[in-house]
Predict the structure.
Amino acid sequence: MLIAVASTDGEMVNEHFGRASRFWIFNVSKSKQTLIMVRNVEPLSTGDKSHAFDPARMTSVWETTKDCKRVYCTKFGDRPRLELEKLGIEAIIYQDAISSIII
């Protein structure tokens, strides 16, 4: 199963979905994880806490994660989580080592 992870270092799930500038794409099974690639993206958030939801930015992030079944982040905004789930992508709040993710 392909998963996307919001991480600043590729070791820990340590980034908010809206702030992520890259997603680490892993193929994960019960027995192993394989890093497939790192995909860069313009962050969904503008940095202003009161910014409105931007469908164009969300589309860009979705294009980066659309082949993944799950996205792991430390936090999701309500609207981005809903948009991912509408697309069939499970939004998982997680804050630990990427190596501890099991399917």
In short: Strands lie at 2-6, 22-28, 33-40, 70-73, 90-93. The mean pLDDT is 90.
